[in-house]
Specification:
The complex is a heterodimer of chains A (256) and B (714).
Chain A (H helix, E strand, L loop, with lengths): L3 H8 L20 E2 L2 E2 L2 H10 L5 E4 L2 E4 L20 E2 L6 E2 L18 E7 L5 H8 L12 E3 L8 E5 L4 H13 L5 E5 L1 H5 L21 E3 L6 H11 L17 H4 L1
Parallel strand pairs in A: 7-8, 7-9, 9-10, 10-11
Antiparallel strand pairs in A: 1-5, 2-4, 3-4, 6-11
Chain B lengths: L2 H22 L5 H24 L5 E8 L3 E7 L1 H24 L10 H19 L3 H19 L6 H29 L6 H10 L2 H19 L7 H8 L5 H23 L5 H23 L4 H28 L3 H36 L10 H4 L1 H14 L8 H12 L7 H33 L6 H4 L6 H19 L1 H16 L3 H5 L15 H10 L15 E4 L6 E5 L1 H26 L23 H11 L1 H4 L2 E8 L6 E9 L3 H25 L3 H21 L1
Antiparallel strand pairs in B: 1-2, 3-4, 5-6
Helix pairs in contact in B: 1-2, 1-4, 2-3, 2-4, 3-4, 3-10, 3-13, 3-19, 3-20, 4-5, 5-6, 6-8, 6-9, 8-10, 9-12, 10-12, 10-13, 11-12, 11-17, 12-13, 12-16, 12-17, 13-15, 13-16, 13-19, 13-20, 15-17, 15-19, 16-17
Classes of the chains: A alpha/beta (256), B mainly alpha (714).
The complex binds iron/sulfur cluster.
């Protein structure tokens, strides 16, 4: 019974090395379609297959709006001209925009970031990925990131879900209850663009319609590493380049 | 006639005039009479007892004396002066408050029925501590019982109120009988003056002393609210009109304690440890039970009533500890314990009267006292809330308010049992100390609940939302008592010597010597202390304030032997000054340094982002005290009736109704058995009343035969 110390020591650190080193374990990211050069006719066909209009035809081929992609794989499966596939996971983006927006929180927060998670109409997928952040493998405590149940202690509002009508008021209240400086991280394609739902009678289209979003984490759902990337960005800790190497090919068999 | 005599006559004349005037004056004038004459009489009482208490002015009068039958004497010593002074402190604001709150009865009740007994009771309260012989004492005691009965049953709207008053009268009468028996045993067929009884007490054997002690303790314990004879108290306090409860808690309760102190402490020589231990144990038990029931109450008045029981318990425990110390030859430790007990008594009268005033004000403005229907009153009744807060802080024994010093001293006293020889006694002290410490902790819970749930948060009813602020007749008495709470908390070094002198007949040592070392250089006793000791304390700042005030110092300190020169030490005055300074510094730093560089934004309270926070969603008093209820479930033994309605097929419950009833521990173990056996006996008699005529004839015949046989053969 009391061997857990020795056993623990013998087991060693099993958590991911990200962001210090690249994540190489297989299956940690589903990947994301990448911009591909295709002949115009092909490009038009591929773009038409995309259900959320994430693919756009450009003179060189197709471009991907990551914010809208829902990983349906229609653009790679059962098609003559599959798009290129990016197997990484550092998809999060710090938005540049107005003065406040898109800036990270600054040094004081870089190793102590308190996060309030709000489910604004999520199907459970993104929330499930967010939950993984606390498990022993992703273990975000090692980075100084903590979940908090009250906005009074929160620095970051992490929103998942398409922002339904009923969640507008609670979300605004939660944001207003947070002390400044505060940042908003939108996680998942629903939170970013309400990809397949909006605009409709039940949601207006993304968290950005209500709150100033600072970091966007695309993906449907984004894998934990992508969310971690977003949090690192908002904390002002840009992971060094070259760490975004999820082992290529690990997922390639799934694509066909 | 001496000046003191003239003052006493003035008090009695004012009371008489008040009673007479309210008999004849117009209906609308009567409240004003209670206010003016009552407070004038209270001022005269303060003057009278103050000169006895502070200056030691003597007063002794033999009213009449029939040789070999009865002598009626009145006499004032410092002990009775202390109790009179406290009565005055409560009756002065009490009369003003009564005058104001009687207004709501105009047209519904006869105001005469209040003011005439009120003045009569006033005079009785003045005379009881003065009477120095058993006959007049008992007569006055009886009068007090009847008059309090009349006043408690004044509002007789519901059957419960009348019943509560009856119960009080009945238990009070039983107590009087016990007291009378105690006096008879003590007098030992000698004269009934206290002086003579004291002499008789010295010659009494151990059994006689035990008998007198137990009779007096139980008999006076009725009025003092001690276990097991206090079941009447919460009911009577709740039934009594708001204008009268403060007097009940601040004056008549004290007289019960006065009786115990007078008889068990002074008339009986303190030579046995046993009685002291009994008082200590009963006091601790009373305190613990009182606060447990107080914490779980949701009626504010009932809560305060139970807390009065708690306080009476603490006082009695302190007194018991004092008796033990005195009996085992530690006069100076005894004086500390008695000073603590009397201090607690003074404090309790002041803050309990204050709290009852605030609850009276709340009741008259919101028309409910149920904590679960109040809430948010601080917005509509800011002054009342402030004064309640002062009272709550005092009663929860938080410095720098009244209540802290006395409870702290009481607990310290119990720790002093290390000085006592017997291990058994030490164990009792330790157990009682633990009980009292638990009591102190629960008292904080109880009054956090009372204040936070009653006055903070959201209003839980329409009435509470639209309550009108308290009127001036309520504000003035409350403000006066709140200031007094602060003063009593800040100046223990001035209060303790006075209390010590009052208890001197029992301990034969003043408490000042043991507790208030003369740190101020201007004091003539300054030289008493070893110079090195004084220098050490001056280095800590014990001479601060020397220029500002006379007296011995501002530090309460008990000196021990060589091994531990300071047993305990504390100064609420310095503590309060430091506290104020720290608050000020924090405020200044915040305002000038922090807030200047930051924008302050005010947003609504965070309530989990629900659309609208409803009062029903907030924490209630019942919810707050539920942990206590659950932990002590075995003691409360609630009766729970659960009623469920099920849908067809008995698969799902459609509704559950749960009724929780509570029967007080003492009701279960004392009142109910007595009531049941009385009912059983009277039922037996009842059956005899309605029997068959032939059977009666048979009884007669049998009795006749038995009588004849007995007569024949004896
Ligand atoms: S995976 Fe589906 S949603 Fe994403 S770009 Fe391809 S077709 Fe569009």
């Amino acid at each position: 019974m009391s061997q857990w110390v020795t056993k623990g020591l013998a087991t060693g650190v099993k958590a991911t090395h990200y962001p210090r080193a690249a994540e190489t374990a297989p299956g940690t990211s589903p990947g994301m379609p990448a911009a591909t050069s295709l002949p115009a006719a092909r490009a038009q066909l591929v773009a038409a297959r995309c259900p959320t209009a994430a693919l756009r035809q450009v003179p060189s081929g197709v471009e991907v709006d990551r914010r809208r992609c829902v990983h349906c794989f229609r653009c790679v499966r059962e098609t003559e001209s599959p798009v290129d596939w990016d197997a990484g996971c550092q998809w999060a983006e710090l938005l540049a925009g107005s003065e406040r927006r898109g800036r990270s929180l600054g040094r004081a927060f870089s190793r102590s970031l308190h996060i309030l998670v709000v489910d604004a109409g999520d199907c459970g997928a993104c929330l499930s990925e967010v939950r993984q952040l606390n498990n022993p493998y992703y273990n975000m405590h090692r980075l100084g990131f903590f979940l908090t149940p009250t906005p009074r202690h929160a620095d970051v509002l992490l929103v998942v879900g398409a922002l339904t009508e009923h969640m507008r008021l609670p979300l605004r209240k939660a944001y207003e209850a947070m002390p400044a400086p505060k940042r908003v991280v939108a996680v998942g394609s629903c939170a970013l663009s309400a990809a397949i739902f909006s605009p409709s009678f039940i949601c207006a289209g993304g968290v950005g319609k209500l709150l100033p979003v600072d970091v966007e984490v695309p993906g449907n759902p984004p894998p934990p590493l992508a969310i971690l990337h977003g949090l690192l960005l908002v904390a002002g800790r840009k992971p060094p380049s070259g760490t975004d190497a999820v082992r290529a090919g690990a997922n390639q068999d799934r694509l066909r | 006639m001496t000046a003191m005599g003239r003052l006493l006559v003035l008090i009695l004349v004012l009371c008489g005039a008040g009673a007479a005037l309210s008999l004849f004056a117009g209906r609308r004038r009567r409240p004003a009479i209670v206010g003016w004459l009552g407070s004038a009489a209270a001022l005269a009482l303060l003057w009278f007892s103050g000169s006895g208490l502070f200056a030691g002015a003597p007063f002794h009068a033999t009213l009449w004396s029939i040789p070999s039958l009865a002598t009626v004497t009145l006499s004032l010593d410092r002990l009775s002066a202390l109790f009179l002074f406290v009565s005055g402190l409560v009756l002065l604001p009490g009369s003003i408050f009564a005058a104001g709150s009687l207004g709501r009865y105009v047209g519904r009740y006869s105001l005469r029925a209040f003011s005439v007994p009120y003045f009569a009771l006033f005079a009785t309260l003045v005379l009881i501590p003065l009477s120095a012989d058993a006959a007049s004492f008992l007569m006055l005691w009886e009068l007090m019982s009847v008059l309090t009965y009349l006043l408690v049953s004044y509002e007789d709207e519901t059957d419960g109120q009348r019943r509560s008053a009856y119960l009080m009268l009945a238990v009070g009468e039983a107590g009087t009988v016990l007291i009378a028996l105690g006096f008879i045993v003590l007098a030992n067929s000698g004269p009934l003056e206290f002086v003579a009884m004291k002499a008789a007490g010295a010659t009494l054997g151990a059994q006689g002393r035990w008998a007198v002690f137990l009779l007096a303790f139980l008999g006076f314990g009725v009025k003092a609210g001690l276990v097991p004879v206090n079941f009447w108290l919460p009911r009577a306090y709740t039934a009594a009109p708001a204008a009268f409860v403060p007097v009940l808690a601040g004056a008549t309760l004290n007289l019960g304690l006065y009786g115990i102190v007078r008889v068990a402490g002074e008339l009986l020589p303190a030579s046995m440890v046993g009685p002291g231990l009994v008082a200590l144990g009963v006091g601790s038990l009373t305190a613990l039970l009182g606060i447990l029931y107080a914490t779980t109450q949701s009626d504010l008045k009932m809560l305060l009533a139970h807390s009065s029981i708690e306080n009476a318990g603490i006082i009695t425990a302190g007194f018991g500890a004092g008796l033990v110390f005195v009996a085992s030859g530690h006069g100076s430790l005894g004086s500390i314990a008695l000073a603590a007990a009397l201090y607690q008594m003074v404090n309790h009268s002041v803050y309990k009267a204050l709290l009852f005033f605030t609850v009276g004000a709340v009741d008259s403005s919101v028309r409910t006292r149920n904590i679960d229907r109040l809430g948010g009153l601080i917005k509509v009744m800011p002054f009342t809330a402030l004064f309640f807060l002062v009272g709550a802080l005092s009663i929860a024994a938080l410095p720098p308010f009244a209540g802290f010093v006395s409870e702290w001293l009481t607990l310290q006293t119990l720790l002093l049992s290390a000085e006592l020889g017997s291990t058994g006694v030490k164990i009792v002290f330790a157990l009682c100390g633990a009980a009292l410490a638990l009591t102190a902790g629960l008292a904080v819970t109880c009054f956090v609940k009372a204040f936070a749930m009653g006055f903070l948060g959201m209003a839980r009813s329409e009435e509470a939302r639209h309550a009108r602020p308290a009127r001036i007749w309520a504000i003035v008495p409350m403000a006066g008592l709140a200031l007094l709470c602060l003063a009593l908390g800040l100046t223990p070094t001035y209060v303790i010597p006075v209390l010590g002198r009052a208890a001197a007949p029992i301990t034969r040592v003043g408490a000042a010597q043991a507790l208030v070392p003369p740190f101020f250089a201007a004091n003539p006793h300054h030289g008493e202390l070893p110079a090195a000791f004084v220098a050490e304390f001056h280095a800590l700042g014990a001479e601060v304030g020397e220029r500002l005030m006379p007296g011995r110092g501002l530090v309460v300190l008990h000196r021990g032997g060589k091994a531990n020169p300071v047993v305990f030490a504390m100064s609420t005055a310095y503590m309060a000054a430091v506290l104020a300074l720290m608050l000020l510094v924090a405020y200044v730093v915040f305002r000038l340094v922090i807030a200047r560089r930051r924008a302050v934004e005010r947003r609504a309270v965070w309530a989990g982002a629900i659309p609208r926070l409803l009062p029903e969603m907030t924490y209630t008093g019942t919810g707050f005290s539920n942990p206590v209820r659950v932990v002590f479930e075995a003691l409360f033994r609630p009766t729970i009736v659960e009623d469920t309605r099920e849908t067809v097929g008995l698969h799902f419950r459609a509704a559950i109704r749960r009724i929780r009833g509570e029967n007080h521990l003492l009701d279960r173990f004392v009142l109910d058995p007595i009531a049941d056996s009385a009912l059983w006996v009277s039922n037996g008699f009842g059956r005899l009343h309605h029997g068959v005529l032939n059977a009666y004839v048979l009884y007669g015949l049998v009795a006749l035969i038995v009588a004849l046989l007995v007569g024949r053969f004896s």
